[in-house]
Design goal:
The structure is a homodimer. With about 240 residues, chain A is an all-alpha fold. Chain A has eleven helices and three strands. The termini of chain A are close together.
Chain lengths: ~240, ~240
DNA sequence: AACAGGGTTTCTGTATACAAAAGCTCCAAC
DNA sequence: GTTGGAGCTTTTGTATACAGAAACCCTGTT
């Protein structure tokens, strides 16, 4: 039973002794994020159970959580599948994130202490380095870390949790709808500018900054009206399962 | 095994033949909303299973969903309990809802068709009547229906879903923190004014209107710093289970 | 060649059994 | 009076068995 998670499962088993549903959620989530599990992929409970070496009970719990996170779809009596957000939903997710992240950074403006600002600055720097050296996965990781840090430090934790969700969802659709020719969705100026404005403490400036950043990101996507094609793929597409 | 849901379970069994996890989620949720299940109440899986006549599998699924909806808390190897949001979380939930619902109604302003406006008008009227006749449960039902309708009709469905969640969460904390002396959290002018502004089509006016409405609602709550007492009650309070 | 239909296979829904963890009770010791 | 701990009870975690639904495949017919 070979799978894309072979080594990680072995490592986890060695370290913790047992695979938890959280572990499965995490692995499936990142696989979707990195498009190793394309939209429409069937995720039968027994197959996942075999791969991770657990019974269906654990897999079911993981799938329920993934469904709550909008990563997979679960319909009664049908196999869970990797979700394929439509173009429309993509636009709406970005709009929602602009609203929520805008408010979060507005609340955060001028309220971050030096240590946190330094952390962000270092992440911005490392993102730029990763991009310069062509290491796109590492670049994405650092970029996500910046936004996750903002969500985590949100003075309003309810909004923070909502933002965490939205960051995941936008990441998935970015992976899905990235223009074919584009190597990276990197906007060199944006994160440094964000940092500057966060330091300045002007709420409305930061809100605007993040707003423009997210709008620019959305504009980098290919959201032309291929939606019908994508939808059909999601509904009819028969792809092989997760096992290789 | 007598319970607060006896008749509804009998009815559902007669109608559908089997109790689904959705049914359990719904019943627990409304019981929390109406404070028949106060915060901290233990919800052991077997007890719920006995009450609803299903096995633990179904109950577990229901509890997982309720946890995702922030209605109950689930910690490893511990009984699920009805959640007791803190004063701080209450304030944050209201702030989040002001942001999201404000945006939703701003998007909605002037875009509702006549039929929908008539529906809202009728709900506003019926809420007023229920309040006049002292029927508070019915008043709450109509009030919730108005806001749920707005969430459902949101042009941005992602924001709409988020609003649905926030309406539920604010309802729970309203029930929790309502001033002891207050019979009802009814603001006679607010919903009619909202309707007028929705008709007018002025986005910013509607946003302001809903913002003020939600702020007024929050101000009706007793959020004085008894939080420690509430928190202790939630953590240490041993109440009897759901069975009577 | 396209299509309908029946049987088989696959997969999910639910119940249940057993193991392990947490909580409780009661008693003894300080 | 309070603390500590052993043993019991309660409750969850996980695996598994079986039933039923959906999907698939293969055949026979038009």
């Amino acid at each position: 039973m070979s799978s894309i998670w072979q080594e990680e499962i072995a490592a986890e088993t060695r370290a913790v002794g047992r695979i938890s549903d959280r572990f499965i959620v995490d692995k499936v989530r990142t696989a979707v994020l990195t498009q190793r599990l394309p939209p429409g992929t069937r995720l039968p409970e027994v197959v996942l159970g075999d791969i991770f070496g657990v019974s269906r009970s654990v897999v079911r719990k993981a799938l329920t959580r993934l469904a709550a996170d909008y990563v997979v779809t679960q319909q009664p009596n049908q196999v869970a599948r990797v979700r394929a957000p439509s173009v429309e939903e993509t636009r709406e997710t970005f709009a929602a994130r602009r609203l929520v992240e805008g408010e979060v950074v507005a609340l955060l403006a001028g309220r971050l202490d030096d240590a946190q600002l330094v952390t962000i600055a270092s992440l911005v720097e490392r993102e730029a380095e990763a991009h310069a050296s062509g290491d796109e996965p590492s670049r994405i990781e650092h970029s996500l870390a910046i936004h996750h840090l903002l969500a985590e430090r949100s003075p309003n934790r309810v909004l923070g949790a909502m933002l965490t969700d939205l960051i995941l969802r936008t990441s998935i659709v970015i992976a899905l709808y990235k223009r074919a020719g584009l190597a990276s969705c990197y906007l060199a100026e944006d994160h440094p500018a964000l940092l500057t404005h966060l330091r300045s403490g002007k709420s409305e400036a930061v809100r605007c900054c993040i707003h423009d950043h997210l709008q620019a990101l959305e504009n980098l996507l290919d959201l032309s009206t291929r939606e019908t094609r994508i939808d059909l793929m999601a509904i009819l597409g028969q792809r092989e399962g997760v096992a290789e």
